[in-house]
Amino acid sequence: MTYQAPTPSALSTMLDTVKFDASGLIAAIAQQHDTGEVLMIAWMTREALQETLETGRVCYFSRSRQKLWRKGETSGQIQHLHEARLDCDGDAVLLLVNQIGVACHTGRRSCFYRAFGPDGLVELTKPEIDPKALYGKQA
């Protein structure tokens, strides 16, 4: 199934349904569309969600940089939208994506690579790529 962008009128109606928080943000969970693997959580503004739905390339909002962040623009680790879903309360988005490369800035496929164990955090996966190779600096 190839992603199909909504019509402009449908997009506007859908975006009006989303409940952004007081800061104008909504939590966005990225999940690999064919395996169900949870890759990451990030934040979106209305503009980021609109761009994502219009283009099919995932765009987030960077709270640290206070600007739109197109996944993969510096690392090459792009997310292509397969489907977007809004939760029952309208305050969280699930993005079913095709992740190209790793999703985590630590060089791992998923940001959820640590489990809470009886003796502390357990590292489940090692980096697949050195973060320096992704961004030119240590993560």
From TrEMBL:
<comment type="similarity">
    <text>In the N-terminal section; belongs to the PRA-CH family.</text>
</comment>
<keyword id="KW-0028">Amino-acid biosynthesis</keyword>
<feature type="binding site">
    <location>
        <position position="88"/>
    </location>
    <ligand>
        <name>Zn(2+)</name>
    </ligand>
</feature>
<comment type="similarity">
    <text>Belongs to the PRA-CH family.</text>
</comment>
<comment type="pathway">
    <text>Amino-acid biosynthesis; L-histidine biosynthesis; L-histidine from 5-phospho-alpha-D-ribose 1-diphosphate: step 2/9.</text>
</comment>
<dbReference type="Pfam" id="PF01502">
    <property type="entry name" value="PRA-CH"/>
</dbReference>
<comment type="pathway">
    <text>Amino-acid biosynthesis; L-histidine biosynthesis; L-histidine from 5-phospho-alpha-D-ribose 1-diphosphate: step 3/9.</text>
</comment>
<dbReference type="GO" id="GO:0005737">
    <property type="term" value="C:cytoplasm"/>
</dbReference>
<dbReference type="InterPro" id="IPR026660">
    <property type="entry name" value="PRA-CH"/>
</dbReference>
<keyword id="KW-0460">Magnesium</keyword>
<keyword id="KW-0479">Metal-binding</keyword>
<dbReference type="GO" id="GO:0008270">
    <property type="term" value="F:zinc ion binding"/>
</dbReference>
<keyword id="KW-0368">Histidine biosynthesis</keyword>
<keyword id="KW-0378">Hydrolase</keyword>
<dbReference type="GO" id="GO:0004636">
    <property type="term" value="F:phosphoribosyl-ATP diphosphatase activity"/>
</dbReference>
<protein>
    <recommendedName>
        <fullName>Phosphoribosyl-AMP cyclohydrolase</fullName>
        <ecNumber>3.5.4.19</ecNumber>
    </recommendedName>
</protein>
<feature type="binding site">
    <location>
        <position position="104"/>
    </location>
    <ligand>
        <name>Zn(2+)</name>
    </ligand>
</feature>
<dbReference type="GO" id="GO:0000287">
    <property type="term" value="F:magnesium ion binding"/>
</dbReference>
<feature type="binding site">
    <location>
        <position position="111"/>
    </location>
    <ligand>
        <name>Zn(2+)</name>
    </ligand>
</feature>
<keyword id="KW-0862">Zinc</keyword>
<dbReference type="GO" id="GO:0000105">
    <property type="term" value="P:L-histidine biosynthetic process"/>
</dbReference>
<feature type="binding site">
    <location>
        <position position="87"/>
    </location>
    <ligand>
        <name>Mg(2+)</name>
    </ligand>
</feature>
<comment type="function">
    <text>Catalyzes the hydrolysis of the adenine ring of phosphoribosyl-AMP.</text>
</comment>
<comment type="subunit">
    <text>Homodimer.</text>
</comment>
<dbReference type="InterPro" id="IPR002496">
    <property type="entry name" value="PRib_AMP_CycHydrolase_dom"/>
</dbReference>
<keyword id="KW-0963">Cytoplasm</keyword>
<dbReference type="GO" id="GO:0004635">
    <property type="term" value="F:phosphoribosyl-AMP cyclohydrolase activity"/>
</dbReference>
<dbReference type="InterPro" id="IPR038019">
    <property type="entry name" value="PRib_AMP_CycHydrolase_sf"/>
</dbReference>
<feature type="binding site">
    <location>
        <position position="89"/>
    </location>
    <ligand>
        <name>Mg(2+)</name>
    </ligand>
</feature>
<feature type="binding site">
    <location>
        <position position="91"/>
    </location>
    <ligand>
        <name>Mg(2+)</name>
    </ligand>
</feature>
<feature type="domain" description="Phosphoribosyl-AMP cyclohydrolase">
    <location>
        <begin position="40"/>
        <end position="113"/>
    </location>
</feature>
